[in-house]
């Protein structure tokens, strides 16, 4: 019998494990815990009862489905409009949840006392118990640690010293110097999308569903720049890689396991009930298709991530010039990790975990932001025309713009910043790990706080009475004192879009430059118009468009055509350039 870190690879039947007794034990503890939780929350007063907020939407779910439902953004706005900057809402089983947009509170949460406020366990331990693959290969290669999560122990799934150590190792990897070397890849992938669109409109303007294409572009960019591997080439009738298919299903399937994710799994993991292998066997035995699917998704993601890591590790061990020339994030991270001291070095499973972490973090959120930009530009034709003019004026005959040249395009920068201000893609939950006073409000240990990124970014006391309007021009002048004095603890442009402090998005510059490159290529060549059909924006974890409120799949149909004056502008510039060259020859 082969033993790996105390985990046996021998096939174990449910009867040998005494599964009946295990179920009885778990059910008894779970029932007692739920009963006590219900009694305590409904019969005893809570410190937040005096904080204003809405009535419970449901006896069981509270306001949960209003906060996270398709119309969640409208509900968020009504909360801050009717009740202020700190609002009491209800979660499952009468749990009190604070909904916050107050800048002073955010400073405490994200900067001053950031170690006391962490992501909730249901975020970090999401299907933690079920990540053990059924194959002997994965068990022997990477036995499960007690804290294996859906992405593994990666940057978004770790806390405390482990998180700080990972961030210390990853910060240099996302430096401007490294990112400059990735910009040609940004352009190459965007050119593939450009060619697809040109073929689609060869016979005239066409309606094109852009969400799927922009998602593929974001995935392909992070695949190449992050792992040096192509997962989703930009071409029509291209079969989707199983890793990409699994990642796309992660959110929709995970949302069906809300109760399990929020209440049961954190409790099982925190109190170390059973082993990961036992959890997986129980999961396979339970009659829940969504739970089985999430286990399958995790297996695929972990297996593919492990395969990529093994290939990189072998290449590093072999050495050579070819390896040195690879500039992808994972390759750089692994090379730096080899040089790190023992106390700073990342373990194998930590490096593997960064793969899915990067893929998920850099694809959905970036494509969601760009989809919103495209919709706004199609809606505001004057802004689209002005942006096109700036891009055409900046065009060079000697190749693509570099990092500095893209950063110097002020209107392009303003369009990006304003969209990221007004169209934050998500909200983020934070949980207090220790009782702490935020001025005038005592936060009991274990309190869940929902940080409203969009409402913070659109606070009229900070951004003025037009804070809810999309106005790129506001970034072309010095920002008002109200913005500077608010001291928003965000890492990007006085906004909370990319969070702040130790929780800040490490790749925000990567995302910003990716958006700029896509706009630079597409807006110069194409005209984008909205179709006659109405576009709805739904909150489904991320903000996504749809033409049908009952349709789960995001859709943004846009009328795409060649820019009307593209050929004329290009012809005039070509003549001007030729005359300039001839004048130099004459001189």
Unreliable residue runs? 1-14, 121-149
Number of domains: 1
Shape: globular
| Helix count from the secondary structure assignment | 25
Number of strands: 14
Strand content: 5-15%
CATH superfamily: Cytochrome P450
The first-level CATH class name: Mainly Alpha
* CATH architecture classification: Orthogonal Bundle
In CATH, the topology is named Cytochrome p450
Helix content: 40-55%
Can you list the strand order of the major beta sheet?
3-4-10-7-5
Round the mean pLDDT to the nearest integer and report it: 80
Structure description:
The chain has 587 residues and is α+β, with helices and mostly antiparallel strands. The chain has a single domain, classed as Cytochrome P450 (Cytochrome p450), CATH 1.10.630.10. The protein has 25 helices and 14 strands. A five-stranded mixed sheet has the order 3-4-10-7-5. A three-stranded antiparallel sheet has the order 6-14-11. β3 and β4 (96-100) form a beta hairpin. α17 (348-379) packs parallel to α24. The model is unreliable at 1-14 and 121-149 (pLDDT under 50).
Give keywords.
single chain; globular; three-stranded antiparallel β-sheet; oxidoreductase activity, acting on paired donors, with incorporation or reduction of molecular oxygen; 25 helices; monooxygenase; alpha+beta; Cyt_P450_E_grp-I; heme binding; Cytochrome p450; Cyt_P450
């Amino acid at each position: 019998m082969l033993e790996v870190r105390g985990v046996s690879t021998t096939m174990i039947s449910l009867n040998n494990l005494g599964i009946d007794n295990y179920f009885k034990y778990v059910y008894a503890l779970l029932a007692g815990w739920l009963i006590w939780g219900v009694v305590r929350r409904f019969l005893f007063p809570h410190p937040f009862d005096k904080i204003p907020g809405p009535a419970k939407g449901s006896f069981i779910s509270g306001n949960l489905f209003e906060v996270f439902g398709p119309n969640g953004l409208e509900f968020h706005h009504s909360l801050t409009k009717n009740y202020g900057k700190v609002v009491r809402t209800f979660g499952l089983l009468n749990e009190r949840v604070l909904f916050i947009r107050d800048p002073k509170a955010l400073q405490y949460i994200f900067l001053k006392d950031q170690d006391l406020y962490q992501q909730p366990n249901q975020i970090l331990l999401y299907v933690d118990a079920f990540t053990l693959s059924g194959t002997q290969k994965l068990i022997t290669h990477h036995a499960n640690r007690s804290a294996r999560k859906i992405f593994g122990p990666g940057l978004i799934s770790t806390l405390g010293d482990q998180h700080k150590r990972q961030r210390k190792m990853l910060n240099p990897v996302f430096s401007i110097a490294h990112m400059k070397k990735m910009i040609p890849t940004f352009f190459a992938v965007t050119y593939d999308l450009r060619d697809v669109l040109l073929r689609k409109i060869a016979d005239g303007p066409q309606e094109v569903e852009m969400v799927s294409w922009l998602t593929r572009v974001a995935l392909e960019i992070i695949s190449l720049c992050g792992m040096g591997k192509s997962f989703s080439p930009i071409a029509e009738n291209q079969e989707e890689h199983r890793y990409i298919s699994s990642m796309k299903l992660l959110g929709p399937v995970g949302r069906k396991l809300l109760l399990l994710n929020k209440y049961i799994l954190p409790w099982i993991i925190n109190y170390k009930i059973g082993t990961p292998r036992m959890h997986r066997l129980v999961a396979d035995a339970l009659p829940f298709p969504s739970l089985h699917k999430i286990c399958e998704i995790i297996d695929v993601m972990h297996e593919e991530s492990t395969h990529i890591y093994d290939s990189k590790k072998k290449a590093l061990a072999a050495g050579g010039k070819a390896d040195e020339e690879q500039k992808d994030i994972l390759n750089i991270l692994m090379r730096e990790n080899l040089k790190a001291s023992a106390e700073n070095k990342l373990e194998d499973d930590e490096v593997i975990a960064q793969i899915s972490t990067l893929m998920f973090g850099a694809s959905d959120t970036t494509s969601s932001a760009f989809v919103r930009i495209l919709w706004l530009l199609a809606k505001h034709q004057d802004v689209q025309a002005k942006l096109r003019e700036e891009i055409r004026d900046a065009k060079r005959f000697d190749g693509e713009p570099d990092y500095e040249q893209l950063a110097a395009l002020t209107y392009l920068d303003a369009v990006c910043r304003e969209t990221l201000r007004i169209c934050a893609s998500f909200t983020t939950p934070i949980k207090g790990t220790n009782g702490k006073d935020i001025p005038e409000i005592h936060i009991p240990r274990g309190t869940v706080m929902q940080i409203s990124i969009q409402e913070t970014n659109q606070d009229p006391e900070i951004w003025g009475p037009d804070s809810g309007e999309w106005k790129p021009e506001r970034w072309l002048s010095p920002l008002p004192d109200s913005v500077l004095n608010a001291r928003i603890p965000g890492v990007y442009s006085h906004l909370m879009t990319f969070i702040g402090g130790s929780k800040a998005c490490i790749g925000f510059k990567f995302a910003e430059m990716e958006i700029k490159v896509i706009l630079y290529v597409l807006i110069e060549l194409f005209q984008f118009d909205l179709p006659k059909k109405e576009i709805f924006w739904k909150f489904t974890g991320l903000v996504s468009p749809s033409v049908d409120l009952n349709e789960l799949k995001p859709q943004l149909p846009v009328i795409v055509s060649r820019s009307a004056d593209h050929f004329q502008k290009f012809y005039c510039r070509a003549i001007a350039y030729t005359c300039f060259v001839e004048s130099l020859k004459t001189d």
